[in-house]
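Let's sit down with a protein and look at its sequence and fold side by side. Once you have written the record down, we can walk along the chain together.
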Amino acid sequence: MKTMEAKIIKVGNSYGVRLKKSYVLERNLKLGDPVKVELKRDASPSNEKLAAAVKELQSLQPFRRIKNPAAWQQQIRSEWDEREKKQFNLS
């Protein structure tokens, strides 16, 4: 089994792994073919670290001043849309 380095990329609302075209062609891979991915490093934090981070975040109560989370999220998205329109000169 020949290995290669690959990067995680954003694909719409999901993530994917980008493979070199030559790697795909040499192995006659097609869209939808199952592949096995072996991580070079453990990319996931330990459960203990994650639990500690969540507990610390909860103790900080970062969203305690937000009275209406849905309205707040709509406002943030609206601000992002406006910033994007200005950045890319969209009307």
